[in-house]
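user: Please supply your own:

assistant:
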Amino acid sequence: MSDPSDEIERTVTLPPMKSITWTSIFSRTVLVGLLLIETLGLATAMLFLFHRVHPTTCTTGLDPNQLLYSPALVAVENEVRVYNIGFPGDLSSFQIPSSPALDQMWSDLYNFGISRISKDEAARLPNKTHAIPGDEGYYIAELDVFHNLHCLNKVRMALDPDYYPEWRISTTNNWIPSQKNATEHVSHCLDWIRQSIMCAGDTSVIVWQWEDSANASIVKGDVAHTCRNFDRLRDWGHEHTLHVEYDPAVHIEDDIAVPTFRSGGEQQRG
């Protein structure tokens, strides 16, 4: 089969040289100039429109590690860590029976988690937050890592209802009204942690290695992970603890207007 472009070349012939005049050359020059001006004008208009919509548009063209602003980005420091397996022989310090000592260990992970940030930082957030009554110029915020730890702690407590009776939850076929708060709270926490794990999407690789003693390949979880240094984030949290008790009943008007992101990618001006 012949190339279609061959047929096009056969039908296009150049005009005889004698038909090209200074008038035609001038006309073509003017036409090319007009086309260039029109193209530049169109490009300028497109750049102007892009500049206007870009600040409020979520796009995957940005650095995926800094798609949304957080005031704690200054505290982000990556490190390599190997998890405790969590079975006998490789337990973590948190795997001890329920006790005041264990409660304190968990509390120390996030009990400073409600933070104060400046108005400039609040104005750069992807969602609007509220000013702190009695602490002019500062706004309330919480890093999600600390909320996740709070939620995981509540799930832990619900797993030992004999020690934490206030966190005893109802089973599928045994709804107890007095346990409504704990049941709903733990349900919220479980699903929040699910979403957070899926959001983080840890791509560290668990491997299988041959064990002569078992005459089989055994799954190995003691592998390297790229992690964010939690001590740095905890230090940031301590440095931004509230200076006054937050009163949610006090409403403060401000001039901050930021896009509020909803599920499904929808945005709402706040």
Q: What stands out?
A: The first helix runs from residue 4 to 11.
